[in-house]
Amino acid sequence: MKRVTSIVRLIIMIVIALISVAPILWMVAGSFRPYQELFKYTSLNIHLLIPVEWTGRNFHNVIFNARNPFLRYIWNTLLVASIVTALVLIINSMAAFAFAKLRFRFKTFVFALFMSAMIIPGEVTLVPNYLLMHDLGWLNSYKALIVPSMLSVFGIFMLRQFFAEVPNEMMEAARIDGASLPRTFVSIVLPAAVPALITLGLMTFLGNWDSYLWPLIVINDQKMQMIQVGISTFSSNEGTDWSKVLAANTLSTVPILLLFLFLQRYYIQGITMSGIKG
């Protein structure tokens, strides 16, 4: 009976996985099709996912597009996402450590105030943030993309859950050995939360890689634009060049897939442990 249950569960998981992966496979296959073949095969057959005529012309048209410098979009997004991820890990880990292990006045109130920010939709703060960037003179600059994204309330909450599990005895032993508070934080606390840090880093990087609305609002210079806004330029009032859109989306997916490929073990561990400790 247990074997039958396991087989049924495996079949259900395979079906769900295929349903989830099918759109991605269609996107990748479509990026290698000529435009006239793109919507020719819509019925359920082998050519729905495997092109009849293979071509790399779509990628060539995307990468070497003079009007839309796609490689520059990738570089801009990679630069901004990497800087934001690094700053989020540094700033939020220190804030989470303070909330988890340090004692100061009104700590509970301040932490509750931080957590209340999680219920505020990002669209509500869109206009105030834009006006702030305008007053600071940061519009059309990387600062407008980086600075507002440096703080993650969810990141503070998640890391605090990990840091709270670090035994106080270990920190006290480090202090007895002469370690300062920053040294204790770097040598004792951070190594215990590596899965959580990697999980938060992946979430932050992915969020900035997929960011569309905020860069669209604060960046006007085409050479400074982000990748998702760059992909949208293949659509206009004249129509949408779906071959280029699929090729651009395929290219933009590669860095994320590589990240998850190398860090998936830590990501899954971080999600699992955060669920247990939450």
Automatic annotation (TrEMBL):
<keyword id="KW-0813">Transport</keyword>
<comment type="similarity">
    <text>Belongs to the binding-protein-dependent transport system permease family.</text>
</comment>
<keyword id="KW-1133">Transmembrane helix</keyword>
<protein>
    <submittedName>
        <fullName>Carbohydrate ABC transporter permease</fullName>
    </submittedName>
</protein>
<dbReference type="InterPro" id="IPR035906">
    <property type="entry name" value="MetI-like_sf"/>
</dbReference>
<feature type="transmembrane region" description="Helical">
    <location>
        <begin position="109"/>
        <end position="132"/>
    </location>
</feature>
<feature type="domain" description="ABC transmembrane type-1">
    <location>
        <begin position="74"/>
        <end position="263"/>
    </location>
</feature>
<feature type="transmembrane region" description="Helical">
    <location>
        <begin position="184"/>
        <end position="206"/>
    </location>
</feature>
<keyword id="KW-1003">Cell membrane</keyword>
<dbReference type="Pfam" id="PF00528">
    <property type="entry name" value="BPD_transp_1"/>
</dbReference>
<keyword id="KW-0812">Transmembrane</keyword>
<feature type="transmembrane region" description="Helical">
    <location>
        <begin position="73"/>
        <end position="97"/>
    </location>
</feature>
<keyword id="KW-0472">Membrane</keyword>
<dbReference type="InterPro" id="IPR000515">
    <property type="entry name" value="MetI-like"/>
</dbReference>
<feature type="transmembrane region" description="Helical">
    <location>
        <begin position="245"/>
        <end position="263"/>
    </location>
</feature>
<feature type="transmembrane region" description="Helical">
    <location>
        <begin position="144"/>
        <end position="163"/>
    </location>
</feature>
<feature type="transmembrane region" description="Helical">
    <location>
        <begin position="7"/>
        <end position="29"/>
    </location>
</feature>
